[in-house]
Write a structure and sequence with these properties.
Belongs to the class-I aminoacyl-tRNA synthetase family. GluQ subfamily. Pfam families: tRNA-synt_1c. The structure is a single chain. Strand 1, helix 1 and strand 2 form a beta-alpha-beta unit. The chain is globular and about 65 Å long. The longest helix has 17 residues. The chain folds into two domains: 157 residues, HUPs (Rossmann fold), CATH 3.40.50; 110 residues, Glutamyl-tRNA Synthetase, domain 3 (Alpha-Beta Complex). It has 322 residues and is α/β, with parallel strands linked by helices. It is built from eleven helices and eleven strands. The strands form five sheets. The protein has a three-stranded antiparallel beta sheet. Strands 1-2 form a two-stranded parallel sheet. The chain binds glutamic acid. The site of glutamic acid (GLU) has 7 residues, from loops.
Length: 322
Amino acid sequence: MIRGRFAPTPSGQLHIGNARTALLAWLQIRQAGGQFVLRMEDIDKPRSRPELARQILEDLRWLGLDWDEGPDVDGPYGPYTQSCRLELYQAALEKLKSQNRLYPCYCSRAELMSIASAPHGLDSEGPAYPGTCRRLSAEQRLTKSQIKTPSLRFSLPDRELQFHDAIAGYACYPAGAGGDFVVQRADGIFGYQLAVVVDDAAMKITDVVRGADLLDSTPRQIWLYEALGYTVPRFAHSPLLYGPEGKRLSKRHGSVTVAGMRAAGTSPERIIGCLAYWSGLMDRLEPIQAAELVAHFSIAKIAAEPLVIEASVLASLAGSSL
Ligand code: GLU
């Protein structure tokens, strides 16, 4: 059984880029007759807001998408809200600790910021961590632990990593790419990489479709799958949407949130029509329902190039002129 998911973070409103990812992930699963999971990624509790979580679900339903399992419908692999799954992340952390894959990191934010971008950095993830605290002696660790609570980092294996992405194609990352990454912050919050891997494995996700901004997270997640003994899912990273001047879509481009477009009187069919046209699923820009796209969907139709959206189309979606 093929199983996919959409995993929004409720720290902001659903915008057109998220809606596109949700649509593609949903179409893939509905076309294949699989099960679709909605998971609310509020692991960073201080930055998440319950009213945004509710609104995201409402926006998705308004767009014509549905899910078989999720925070509001439950299911066999629940709970479907990350803040209710902390014991699972803790258990995974213990497993990694028992394999000696983690070490405490005492570096301050200022120290981390001063690390020059190394050739092995993963661009979208910031400069690669140079492994400073990996090399501390037991004595140095003891001294530092008396003044600071550490974060926990995962030690990357010293091997290159390759994988195939259904949209982006073949990807190869050299040994050490991105550097050792944080799996638990000093304030106790579990890292995104850990939570997403534990959840996708526990929820038996076979296919991950998400935005290309997370492509560079994938090698890290594959290392975690391997260390935790989980099966790695198939990945497809959809290209990002850019505004007319080549910048990633943002508030500057008008109300590119689903709620904003809805408030401006734009219909869900019009939004879905634009998303489908931009994704190469339709050859004309016209309104359509999400369900009408299911039968002919194929991930192979999605082009890997980033999309530049015309100003006039954005303005009409947002119900305003720019
Ligand atoms: N929660 C992440 C986000 O909203 C997505 C995680 C994922 O799809 O792996 O960016």
